[in-house]
């Protein structure tokens, strides 16, 4: 078993996380159950943040909350001194309810509505990451009518896309996000924005991809952007206070993945930004990054109970669990790979290779193909690792399956931070056509 964070096997052969026996947690809270190893989230956050501090760089590490957005999670991000990225009114609302410091909230998205932008002005958040000309016009209009200043970053597409191991240099960027750096749209956006009386352009933002295992994509993007900034300093007298290089730092889902430590990404980024700004005799900007997956991904574990087992002789054995694409859609959506163990008997020898089926009415609802396991019997507990990012946040009620609870574990204590959805919750928004005939 590859172990993440505080995960360990106790003397009973049970999986333990945050010093708590997972079998006991399953008995107490039921299954499926999402667990988060809080100490590991803190460790990841500090890995990013302390590297900037150590190297004397003014920075913001913003948690991309779409990876897992909840009141408790945002409060944990606050405790660790992180900033926060939101991408919708709903995430902003959650941040407000969490009491998150508004000046450290950044608002992303390629189609923010007027209502969402008004909400950002009402809350007076730290900055809006402006994505397109339509949005720039809206921000200008709202800021003028309120006579309220708003800081923005311009989201640009630098013409570099990272696809895990490959970097694709594109001339004309084919992306729904941001202003293109190559075709002049980014400059046009900058010229437009700096003339607006209530808009304060802090700098530039880019996000080149996700699940990236090397530093090359980030350093290439930094180099390209700083080159452009040098040009803009000369011709437009614009100096960027902030350079935001986005998120996308990879994590280990399976043995195939070989990510770097947070510190390694940060060190390389800082080195490159220093080198390039010195080359052009520019001031060092603040560096902002936006990790999502790499802060919460490997801290999350989903616990399922095994149910039916279907053996198709000479083909494969299906072991079904009590959740599936309703609580983790990533295997169905992206063919995402995961590892898992039997949490109630981790030390038992592997005896067979099985495939883990979800319970949704969809043949594609398979969580893991070809997983080596001890012989699984009905009532075993399956712990699937690394489900902390884009698991709960993409959970849904397909087949009217209630969403599982989320429990934080740390220092031997467990705390429910999202309760289990009930059948009553499921019909809360339904309005009947007629009063039901009770019998
Ligand atoms: C999704 C996203 C992130 C976070 O990506 P991860 O792969 O989870 O680190 C950061 N910034 C922006 C703009 C994003 O869209």
UniProtKB/TrEMBL annotation:
Matching CDD domains: PLPDE_III_DapDC
InterPro entries: Ala_racemase/Decarboxylase_C, DAP_deCOOHase_LysA, De-COase2_CS, De-COase2_N, De-COase2_pyr-phos_BS, Orn/DAP/Arg_de-COase, PLP-binding_barrel
GO biological process: lysine biosynthetic process via diaminopimelate
E.C. no: 4.1.1.20
Binding site for substrate: 293, 330, 334, 362, 390
Catalytic activity: meso-2,6-diaminopimelate + H(+) = L-lysine + CO2
SUPFAM superfamilies in alphabetical order: Alanine racemase C-terminal domain-like, PLP-binding barrel
Keyword Lyase attached: yes
A GO term for molecular function: pyridoxal phosphate binding
Active site residues according to the UniProt entry: 361 (proton donor)
Cofactor: pyridoxal 5'-phosphate
Subunit structure: Homodimer.
NCBIfam families, alphabetized: lysA
Role: Specifically catalyzes the decarboxylation of meso-diaminopimelate (meso-DAP) to L-lysine.
Assigned protein family: Belongs to the Orn/Lys/Arg decarboxylase class-II family. LysA subfamily.
Designated name of the protein: Diaminopimelate decarboxylase
Gene name in the database record: lysA
């Amino acid at each position: 078993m590859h172990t993440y964070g505080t995960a360990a096997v106790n003397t009973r052969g049970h999986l333990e996380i945050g010093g708590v026996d997972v079998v006991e947690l399953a008995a107490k809270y039921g299954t499926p159950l999402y667990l988060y190893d809080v100490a590991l989230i803190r460790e990841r956050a500090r890995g990013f943040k302390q590297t900037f501090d150590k190297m004397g760089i003014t920075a913001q590490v913003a948690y991309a909350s779409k990876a897992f957005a909840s009141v408790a999670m945002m409060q944990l991000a606050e405790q660790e001194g992180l900033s926060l990225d939101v991408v919708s009114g709903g995430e902003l609302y959650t941040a407000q309810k969490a009491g998150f410091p508004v000046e450290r909230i950044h608002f992303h998205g390629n189609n923010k509505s007027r209502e969402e932008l008004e909400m950002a002005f009402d809350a007076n958040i730290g900055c809006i990451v402006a994505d397109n000309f339509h949005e720039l016009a809206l921000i200008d209009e709202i800021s003028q009518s309120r006579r309220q200043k708003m800081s923005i970053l311009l989201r640009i597409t630098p013409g570099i896309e990272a696809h895990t191991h490959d970097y694709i240099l594109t001339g004309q960027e084919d992306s729904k996000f941001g202003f293109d750096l190559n075709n002049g749209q980014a400059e046009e956006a900058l010229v437009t924005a700096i003339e607006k009386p209530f808009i304060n352009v802090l700098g530039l933002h880019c996000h080149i991809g996700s699940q990236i295992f090397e530093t090359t994509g980030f350093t290439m993007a930094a180099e390209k952007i700083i080159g452009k900034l040098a040009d803009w300093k000369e011709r437009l007298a614009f100096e960027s206070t902030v350079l935001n290089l986005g998120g996308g730092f990879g994590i280990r889902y399976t043995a195939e993945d070989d990510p770097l430590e947070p510190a390694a990404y940060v060190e390389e980024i800082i080195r490159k930004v220093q080198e390039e700004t010195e080359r052009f005799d520019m001031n060092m900007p603040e560096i902002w990054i936006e990790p999502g997956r790499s802060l919460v991904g490997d801290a999350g574990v989903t616990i399922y109970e095994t149910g039916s087992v279907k053996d198709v002789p000479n083909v494969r054995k299906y072991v079904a669990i009590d959740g599936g694409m309703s609580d983790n859609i990533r295997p169905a959506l992206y063919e995402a790979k995961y590892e898992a163990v039997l949490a109630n008997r981790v030390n038992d020898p592997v005896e067979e290779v099985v495939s883990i089926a979800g319970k949704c009415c969809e043949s594609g609802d398979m969580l893991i193909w070809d997983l080596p396991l001890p012989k699984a019997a009905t009532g075993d507990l399956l712990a699937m690792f690394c489900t902390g990012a884009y698991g709960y946040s993409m959970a849904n009620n397909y087949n009217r399956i209630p969403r599982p609870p989320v429990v934080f574990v740390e220092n031997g204590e467990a705390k429910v931070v999202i309760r289990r959805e009930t059948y009553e919750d499921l019909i809360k928004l339904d309005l009947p056509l007629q009063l039901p005939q009770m019998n």
